């Protein structure tokens, strides 16, 4: 089969011929239809410090996918051949306290396909049947292929009650933009999205009615005045990983405000804890998606009018992957979807 492999401990990826994965009794085999390129894949492409520490070589990468089941292991009862699925790319253990309490997403032994284990940028992918998510007719393959990042957006946005609240989202990457759409769908009042990249903010304007602010030249205070927000944002969703964005967020929060942190800073950063303490802020870290509440809620929202399709800006054949990665590097794209048909 074709597979996009991190073949060398150096920049880039290689399309190679690899054996189809062998499934075990609890696994399913999926013929991959579409995959999304993630920021994580770009880190792996670039072979940055994080990738060098994390990624085994050689390995098939990729973790955002949708496809059709072509084989199931002998123990599998919940999935059958022909089912159209996406899936949770975090594989968990069942030994920890949190996993045994049913909080699967908090298992410390979590391993990621395409990061620690062979991934989805291939004609065929193996995952445990436990991780499969059935796709209803309203969710086609290209939306199925971006449920992983949509799930990050949903998990973060649903961390706190948003109804009637004013929300600040820092970072208009695909996840920040999708989070803005989710906030609107569930009933937030003002939604303000910041970035320093005009392409991304323009894309956000096409997907949502959130107010967009380029903080490299506009003052967030002015925007808050215009919206008649006297006290500050009730909820903050940090989706840039930029320390400056977090600082700005803490500064603009209401007393007792709540912040959910998804963005990953490139290293340790300093925080003015005095401001966090004296504003009585609540800060919650977010990793991945809740298994499987996030999946349930996001599919329900897609079935009831949540529309994130415009966040997919580029569609291309799997063989043109290098072009997709070049776009990601420039930041002049939303989601890039590869077609394995
Ligand atoms: P992305 O890199 O495409 O988007 C981040 C955006 O932040 C970019 O558009 C960038 O221009 C913007 N930005 C940079 N500095 C800024 C500033 N000072 N103020 C406002 N915006 C600024 O990333 P994405 O794919 O949308 O993902 C969002 C973040 O979430 C990334 O940091 C990613 O690594 C992280 N992530 C975390 C998890 C998790 O499980 N915690 C999962 C997926 C992604
Ligand atoms: Zn991803």
From TrEMBL:
- Entry annotated with the keyword Membrane: no
Name the Enzyme Commission number(s) assigned to this protein. 1.1.1.103
Entry-linked InterPro entries: ADH-like_C, ADH-like_N, ADH_Zn_CS, ER, GroES-like_sf, L-Threonine_3-DHase, NAD(P)-bd_dom_sf, Zn_alcohol_dh
Enzyme type, top EC level: oxidoreductase
The record, for SUPFAM superfamilies, names: GroES-like, NAD(P)-binding Rossmann-fold domains
- Provide the coiled-coil residue spans: none
Cofactor or coenzyme needed: Zn(2+)
Sorted alphabetically, the Gene Ontology BP terms of this entry are: L-threonine catabolic process
User: Which residues are in the Enoyl reductase (ER) domain?
Assistant: 9-338
| Keywords, ordered alphabetically | Cytoplasm, Metal-binding, NAD, Oxidoreductase, Zinc
- Its Gene Ontology molecular function terms? L-threonine 3-dehydrogenase activity; zinc ion binding
Which PROSITE patterns is this protein grouped with?
Answer: ADH_ZINC
Give a yes or no for keyword Oxidoreductase in this entry: yes
Q: Which PANTHER family match?
A: L-THREONINE 3-DEHYDROGENASE
By sequence similarity, the record places it as follows: Belongs to the zinc-containing alcohol dehydrogenase family.
Question: What protein name does the entry list?
Answer: L-threonine 3-dehydrogenase
Upper classification of the source organism reads:
Bacteria, Pseudomonadati, Pseudomonadota, Alphaproteobacteria, Hyphomicrobiales
């Amino acid at each position: 089969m074709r597979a996009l492999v991190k073949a060398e401990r150096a920049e880039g990826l290689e399309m190679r011929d690899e054996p189809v994965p062998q499934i075990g009794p609890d696994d399913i085999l999926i013929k991959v239809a579409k995959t999304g390129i993630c920021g994580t894949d770009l880190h792996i492409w670039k072979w940055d410090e994080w990738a060098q520490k994390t990624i085994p070589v050689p390995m098939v990468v990729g973790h955002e996918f949708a496809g059709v089941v072509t084989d199931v292991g002998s123990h599998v009862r919940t999935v059958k051949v022909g089912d159209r699925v996406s899936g949770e790319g975090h594989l968990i253990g069942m030994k920890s306290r949190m996993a045994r309490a049913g909080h699967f997403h908090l298992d410390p032994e979590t391993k990621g396909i395409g990061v620690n284990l062979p991934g989805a940028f291939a004609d065929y992918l193996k995952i445990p049947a436990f991780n499969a998510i059935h796709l209803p007719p309203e969710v086609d393959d290209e939306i199925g292929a971006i449920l992983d990042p949509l799930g990050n957006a949903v998990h973060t946005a649903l961390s706190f009650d948003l109804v009637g609240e004013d929300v600040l989202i820092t970072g208009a990457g695909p996840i920040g933009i999708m989070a803005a759409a989710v906030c609107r769908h569930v009933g937030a009042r003002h939604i303000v999205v910041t970035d320093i990249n005009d392409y991304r903010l323009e894309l956000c304007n096409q997907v949502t009615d959130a107010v967009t602010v380029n903080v490299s030249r506009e003052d967030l205070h002015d925007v808050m005045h215009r919206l008649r927000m006297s006290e500050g944002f009730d909820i903050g969703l940090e989706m840039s990983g930029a320390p400056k964005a977090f600082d700005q967020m803490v500064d603009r929060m209401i007393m007792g405000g709540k912040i959910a942190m998804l963005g990953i800073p490139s290293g340790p950063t300093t925080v003015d804890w005095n401001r966090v303490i004296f504003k009585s802020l609540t800060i919650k870290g977010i990793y991945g998606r809740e298994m499987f509440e996030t999946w349930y809620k996001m599919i329900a929202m897609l079935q009831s009018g949540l529309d994130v399709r415009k966040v997919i800006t580029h569609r291309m054949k799997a063989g043109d992957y290098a072009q997709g990665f070049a776009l990601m590097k420039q930041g002049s794209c939303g989601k890039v979807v590869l077609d394995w048909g």
